[in-house]
Batch of 4 targets.
Target 1
Amino acid sequence: MTTPTTTHVRPNYMLIWLYLFLMTIAEVVLAFELPFSQNVKLILLLILAVWKALLVALFFMHLKFERWRLRLIFIVPLPLAAILVTTVIMEKVW
Amino acid sequence: MTHATHSVDMMRPPVPAEPGAGVYSNKLGMWVFLASDVMFFTALIGSYVVLRFGMPSAWAAPGAVLNVPLTGLNTFLLICSSVSMVKAYAAIADGKKYFLRKVPGKTMQDGGLKFWLLITIICGAGFVGVQVYEYIKLVGHGFTPMGYREGSELAERALADPVRYGAGVAGMYGSTFFTMTGFHGFHVTCGVVSMLYLYFTKVLPEKYSAQDYRGIEVIGLYWHFVDLVWIILFTIVYLI
């Protein structure tokens, strides 16, 4: 027997597209035009990149509207990925 | 209420869910594949981060070797393809199988699945085309997976300004750059080929409907993931 999955209100896709476009411009301006230190630029650029990636995952891939058990499939590799990178960095430092 | 009856601004899944994860098996399979692809790209990006920040000498400055404005344009192209993909998904969810149709009382035409998927394919193919053009230009200037080619324009510039061009680690820079962007480009190419296949075998013959559009949702998930990976790659490889 089948069960219905979630029904949700359709997001404003063009608004998400506008956010992504503006954030891409902000990234390029930040990287080449603004007089911040390299460390500040690095942090801000990573925040913008993660923010954009989240917008795509949540609204274009509809993760925001999926059930938690499906979200887990996508979320579980993320801590594993963090462990992978951290372990290699620690190996290098050690 | 049947599965097909829904208001225009509401999204419903293409078919009733199966027990277990609560989604149909094609979609579950794509999510599991994407989870494995997360690990694949993490290995690539993680290796790049470790190599880059573990090196005693600095890598080439952003924009010194790579053409950032061109790649920025390419990023915009991929973002546009992502929104056109989701518009294709929304169109078929509303049962709009057509290409373009006049909206009563408006000058604008309304795009259907055939229109939005074609836009996605064109943008995706455009992305691959620009990337191939970028590779040709880079190799022409002397930037190869082995580093700066001897006697090339870039090798001479690196000799004159070794810090800006990261002369000491050019080989590592070249190999990581071409590996990461190459694998991403391969993913985009696979996506374009898959969409072309769907376009000619399912979309044009109007085999998708508001009751069943699983193929569009599944290829859409893949396509948005490819866009998501590029958002991270663009920042890490081109801007930092």
Target 2
Amino acid sequence: MAGITAADALRRFDPRAQITIVTHEATPFYSRPGLMYYMMGRLKEWDLRIARDGFYRNLGIELKYDTALRVAPDQDLLELASGGRLPFDRLLIATGSKSRRMDVPGADLDGIHFMYTLTDCKGIVSRSRRGMKAVVVGGGLLGAELAEVWRDCGLRVVQLVRDAWYFPRGLSEPQGRIVEASMRRHGVELHLEEEVAEFRGQGVVSKVIAQTGKEFDADVVGLTIGVEPNVDLARASGLAIGRGVLVDEKLRASRPGIYAAGDCAEIQRPGGGRTVIEQLWYSADKQGRAAARCMCADVQPYDPGLFHNSAMFFDVDYVALGAARATEPGQAEETVVSRDGRAARNFVHRSGLVVGIASVGANDRADILMPMVQDGVNLEVAKGELKGRRWPSAR
Amino acid sequence: MAQRALAKKIGYPILAAALIAFFFWQERRTDPMWLGRDKSFWYETLYLAFVLGMGVPVLIKWRRSRYFTIRTISCMASQLVWGYLVIYFILPLSWTTVTYPGGRSSLTPFAQNLWPLEIYGLVVPRYFGFPPVVAGWFVYVVATSLVLMPVLVLRFGRAYCSWFCACGNLAETAGDPFRTQAPKGTRWVRFEWVISAFVLFAILATVFLAFNLPGQKVWQEGWGFWVKFIFSSVIGLGLYPLLGNRPWCRYFCPWAGLFGALGKLGKAGIAANNNCMGCGLCNKHCDMGIDIRRNALRGEITKTTSCVYCGACVAVCPRNVLRVL
């Protein structure tokens, strides 16, 4: 995402630049958020493609199906898996994320799937049959998607969640309960505060053992315990890495001429402080554009702007702007639950001024919440303004 | 699910074959009457039955979307009231048997349809003078086709196409299961120019008819056979499973070709907030093959000549991104 956006933006900044994209994924630039619907059979592979019909040709971008191994240590050359070498003036590393692996016995058994690439999803589809027992490990946005897919395909779904309620990183407790209720209503057997101790099976997974000793039968397992920056290329090239590829606020990596953007970039803010890794579809778009600007020697630093995310937990929608939870010192939060208990908004504020709103089940639109958070309106004003809006409404 | 698939595989071809056969027979029959009624009455009865019957599953399938529900009810109601009750039961006094030079005879009102969807609307006075009935219909056709409807399009785009146009009524009810089949991609969008060929055809046919030029019979028959039968009925209806439910509206409809572009001037469009993740469900369900996602990803308004504001993209969007303007 960041890579394509950057290429698109670069072409606009510099009509004569020679742009090459190196990718190892055979389907060029598809919509990862659409994968869920692909697995449900509602979209075909072609429908996922965002770049199509001569997209690259029109932009004058060369596409190379190859894997970048490393940057030559002494000159600006990209070494490819095919043995080729690609000289560059500017290199953008947009290698994205990879699924976080699990370090427990049996984690490499057959039938244990990640859900990140189209290939992963094809594997899941080919494995899943109606009536099978599926176990989803991980209680996040991806976990909810996978559970929904499997329920839609008629599997029995058990989901193991580490935390005390669903997705505490983005949901306050009352909100988590609403989401859990929705998931249970749709037939997902949720187990909170359960972590996997072991996968068992003869070649193919057949049982998931939790740390509490509980056992769950499983024909197929989905691991959705998060993603981590894919730093293989940067590491092999000797770039500075932390959790991700370390870049400054102009997205420059530790070696001149090399930039990183998207999921894989770890942005250091001037003056130290916490580094930022944004692993979102939206941020990849923003960072890609910013990287293109920086690569054209513009001096404007990347501004992450307002955090923004949205998702669906079955029929419950989720929108977050700014801080979803009060995590920094000085912040407090207050959850307002609707009268019927099916929607809740979590207001994060700093001494009464809103710095973030996360809304569940309320059908809130990002464009309405955004100005409130951006301007940091008074908590009571924000609550009042949203109060008149219809709570859980049909479209 | 299995029932649906069965209905789609077996039910639809029977429906289409019956309707097309009926249409062909009606166009060919010289006697305007059959079983004591105008021959078109029977065709319209069948048509109405399909719109109402197939509308019910549509209402159930899309019940979560208010816009869709209201629109589908509007389709069914307009077909019942305007396309049927008014024409055959409330206004039968305005009927006159007419025979155009060239032999086409009809008992129906001269033009319940917009010009140039129906080329006869504008030429009736040429052949039948101005008795009150003829004048009434002539004024009606001119007012609706050239004034009222273009104004509506100016504000609402081609929404009429999915709210109360007769072709649209069928496309949005019987054709609903096929909406994902619409051909997608820039190549098919570029192909939309053919609609202007149909506009040209309609205008030429009208001119020939209006001035009774030599060869007007050929134009009339060409219009009847090629446009009305082959393109609107056989291709427009029979090929739903291949080309989606709106090949006629997208590529052939001469009225849309003439006035559809007006919609781009007004405020009509599909607005997007910045929640789009690019999953592509909107594109998949667009029966006009519009690339909505492209604009939605950038948070831009989708303004096209072809959008009929059926609301499918809005209803399927899992993130509440889109909105009909």
Target 3
Amino acid sequence: MFEQIAANKRRTVLLIVGAFVFLGVIGFAIGQFWGGGPTGLIIALVVAGGLSIGSYLYGDKLVLASTRARELSPADAPRLHNIVEGLAIAAGIPKPRVYLVPEMAPNAFATGRDPEHASIAVTQGLLESMNRVELEGVIGHELAHVVDRDMLVGTVVATVVGAGILLAEFFMRSWWWGGFGGRRGDDRGGGGAALPLFIVGFVLLALAPILGQLIKLAVSRNREYLADAQGVLLTRYPPGLIAALRKLGASPTAMHSANNATAHLWLNQPSRFEGERTGRLESLLATHPPIAERIQRLEEM
Amino acid sequence: MDAVLWLAIGIVVLVVLVGIYLYNRFVTLRTRAENGWSQIDVQLRRRYDLIPNLVETVKGYAAHERELFQNVTEARARAAGASAPDDRARAENGLTAGLRQLMAVVEAYPDLKADRHFLELQEELAGTEGKIAYARQFYNDTVAKLNTAIETFPGNFIARWFSFTQKEFFDIEDHIRAPIEVDITRDA
């Protein structure tokens, strides 16, 4: 279990380093064409950073509002409150606020920038379909996100990847409109030798938005495994989360407020459609690892 | 000459920095362990507060189980009065055993099992027992970290100089997934 957690952490660090390398390569590629030095890179970083910090500070309220969550008092849901409080004690953090999302699909998410400003939201469906040990498994997973400051990790990755995408798109657009076609000739004496590099750089920049998204999604999936492992470390009872994930996987109910902007937050990827969805492309584009894989890793602990 | 001097200064600075880091780590762990201990205490007291209420409610349906009520009440008084950690742990185990018996008796009274007030108390009790177990888990994990840090190199020197001492584990029975609450809450 501890080895899994350590391996997951290493992978996350690797992915974050990957995100920075991604930004660096794009900055370098543009520098090759543009010759403008790091100015563009810095501007893109500032813009993406500003947007990310905004979402870091106010994202929780936005998310809770967009899912129509309402706060639950201990009298409304004594069992849920008891579980959240108990696991918060186990994690050594203040008790997060508890919200209810009026959806029948069983699911849950955690938000808030640090353990002092954390909120946990569960759907009506989750509250109704899960027994105590399963709820504990789910809440343990969500609290692990809080303890790990996944909002912060997400913010860093979003900033870095966002800056890269911004740069690449800006570059492609200005190239498209022919804004600096002439300057390229000035920079280099022999055009023939630079051509392969030009093509590589061009392809890279064209693919940058997709690549950036893939990095973001890989980080998200990896954080899910990490939260599974650490959540179980809190409850000390893997079968609870396993049973909860099975129920989640078996539930055919669609989620109405599902959208791409908040998909990565949930315990399991919310589906807008009834029934199952699979496919290789989808697993690459998924914010969450497949449930079967998550269960298998939990069973190995 | 100069290079050697700078190297010596660098090493001293490094040692001091490591020392400060270790010292702060000890203080953090010790404070966390103390917080953990008071959290256990809070939850155990919450359980003491629940017991008279619970006994009264059960009495309303099963008045003749007098001996059992007395046992639980006495166990509660013993646990609340104990001070040393191992005395307390023993008393708490006795109390837990008594509560389990009480809850087993409840099985024979369907009316009681359907009583709303009783169900609320039962959830409170199950929740509190969960919190006791989690508080204990947090405390013991922290104590394990503290004790390891105190024994391993180079922390052992810092610990000796500033007299950080190892703490005792708190060993009570694990109630968290004990049968005490399962029947009703599961699939309820």
Target 4
Amino acid sequence: MRGVPWLELTILAPLCGALLGLVLQRAVAVLALVSSLSTAVASAGVAVLVARHGTIRRSVGAWELPLGIQLRADGLAALVLVAFAVVGVFITAYAMVHFEPGSRAARSFFPLWLFAWTGLDALLLSSDVFNLYVTLELTTLTSVGLVATGGDPAALSSALRYLLFAMAGSLLYLLGVALLYGAHGVLDLDLLGAVVTRGPVTWGALALITCGLALKAPLFPLHGWLPAAYASAPVPVSALLSGVVGKCSLYVLVRIWLGVFGVPLGRAPAVLIGVLGAAGVLWASIVACRQQRLKLLVAYSSIAQLGTIFLVFPLMGRAAFAGGAYLVISHACAAAAMFIAAGTIEQVVGHDEIDRLDGLAHRLPLTFVAFALAGVSAMGMPPSGGFVAKWLLVRTAFELHEWWWAAVILIGGLLSAAYVFRVLRGAFVPAPITETIRRSRASDLLALGLALLALALGLAPDLPLALAAQGAPS
Amino acid sequence: MTAENVLPVGVLLSSLVPALIIFLLPEQRHGTRTALNLFAAVTKLVLTAVIGWGVVHHRRYETRVRFLPGADLVLHADPFSLLFVTLSAVLWLATTIYAVGYLEGSPQRSRFFGFFSLCVASTMGIALAGNLLTFFIFYEMLTLSTYPLVVHRGTPESLHAGDVYLAYTMTGAALLFAGTASLYALAGSVEFVAGGSVGPLVAGHRGALMLIFFALVAGLGVKAALFPLHGWLPLAMVAPAPVSALLHAVAVVKAGAFGITRVVYDVYGVRVAEELGVMRPLAFVAAATVVFGSVMALAQRDLKRRLAYSTVSQVSLIVLGVAIVGTVSTIGGVVHLVHQGLMKITLFFAAGNLAEKLHVTRVDQMRGVGRRMPLTMLAFTIGALGMIGVPPIAGFVTKWYLGIGAIEAGASWAIAILAASTALNAAYFLPLLRDAWFEPAETQGGILAEEATLSLVLPTVFTATLSIAAGALAASGVSPLAWAKLIATREYQP
């Protein structure tokens, strides 16, 4: 078990799939499925290793630090890796249902998605600020490409907007990295953490890096590009962006914060991030309540959930950390399930206007069940992964005697109940036609599977939390 | 894995598993569904009886699963949980039979019975919860599983009632969550133990404990329909009759009252709560609700709405008994949990029969119905007289203990509340009974015995009989009163 290079495989498996997919275009979907499953197996291997032996480090090509590139998997990385891999498999399977086999969209989607996944896994396992930059770029640029696979003018213009925001963010981030490298001559997170001191360079780097990542994450009020990008992209793209890829900038920020800035700079900047996150929770939830279209509702809901995750910065501590990680993985399942359900509804009735969905549940029962179960997690109601995350965060807030963070989370939960039930209440209106529509059940089953995963995370949080605690800062 | 570890989960699963199977059954499999429901209800009764026997013989039943740091999932059976479990199990069986008859031929029965069983499973979890977090989890599962029942008919009216129900209960959930999480943050872990467990914290965290108490009680008070948090209950009347019966007698309202009792006795402990000075405000709120609910009931013209406000008032008698410090009043409050359930479910069954068979939904349509539906109206009469407090029906026992308890605890003002409640109960029930029995029928049609079908009448008569039995046999060893005495003595042990 230890002999197998699981870490490298989590990056190589999607990479090979992507490259082969470019060449063997006819078999691209099957290739994608095979490489997704292999990635999932490799990710599970990493998780088992980390659970047994703690943090794992590997030097790529046997070059040692500070020159070489090191891959590192601690509990957080392993947990997120596995969760994303599972959701990734579901999304690949859904894309096989969604895109017509051999179509242009399918041929561009699968390789791009696997490239994005390559970048994502490499990012999760990176341990220095420059590699984080490179992998983040790979993930972002392929995401922009994915948004554009819709092909229509709306998709192209929102992809372009996304690109501009992302580029600005990257530039700021890279400047910050340059500052750090210029001052200290190292890039590795641990080495940097050891030498960074309080001073103008560190503050400058912190500001640049945080702003850059906040643009890409996005953190309120820099989210302008997100709703249009998520809502105009093809459904599999929306699902993977909001569920999986959209979390990577936040992940980088947490990594750098924990490794480098957290200790020397004190709490003030963390509180600022928390305030913006809180504003994002409240604002995005209210806007979500007012949406007319289901996909936009889910997109705004994603911004609100991201905002909640940003609250781990002011609450920083072991339990809050676990809560944030838990929210990341349960939202990955729930958001993907909600987007797939929304996509199914749009596909069947030709629109996704919330006020016109009355009685539809009698014809698409499974779709609505999936949406409802995912909604339970989004609301943070028990039993669900969302509830466990909310519990950990709220409890930490009270332990720190900072009840206002708890209030934000609870109000956010109430608002999300409002928008989730706005969709669900129509399900109870009696319909003139009660036969279910005859069509492939695959997309419903995939959405349901993801929603059940979000639910299951609320039933047995013991194991994932133990994994996340491996090598976590105390 | 011993029987002691498995049985509490068994009680929970005996309605959770049927719920899941029912969701998967096709809509047309009515026979299978009914058989499954009845089998599950009987299984639950048997399991409950076994646990009850064990608890009497000092066995400890507990299932503990690791869940979160400092917070296990715990199901356990103490006398108080058993009281609630037994009530729910018995009334579930009755309501299931009733609902099968009531919904004969209506659409979406699969969804209905699925959520119905889920609702009961959540109630079992609430009853058996061994700590505050477990309680919270099942309490909110109850919120979610009741919503589809409230909006079951899908009319604009019921959807509106559902919206209001959610607005109230979700806000309550947020308060309860805040209270629970902050208590865990303060105490590390909050197990339910007789006499409470937060005592050692009082010295350092007086203010925080008081705030948390009010957050918890306000959160629970929404479901218990404490004034001014009762607004959702009268609206929820649009739900089908078996749902109203379940909501009022067993599941939702009762879960709130049960939760408040747990918080007062097994989280804070009655002495600590008294010392914090939170019992008196709670008693006043309960007393205000008793009077308010009765006055509002008097003003209602719709039969089910009148019954709904009557619930608001009667459930607060439980809280009142709990909030007056003293063994006897505690007995009165705790036993009313059962008594109110038996009597109120009888009233709702009867009201459902009247609406179903004679389309009587308003209080001014009751003339002569006694002769047309004698069994139903006999049951209704027993329930109504019991609510007023006429011996030997169960309600009398409650009021007797509450009255003596109030005097004993030096809270004689509560006597005035009880008297007012009795007078108002009589004022809104007796005219109905007079109309029903002594006025001639409005219509010329069939004069005699137009009783509803057997599956509607049988549960109605059954619960009416239980209401009398609980009162008449109160002195026997297996009566709700005997259990309530056992519970109260445990809570007041030094």
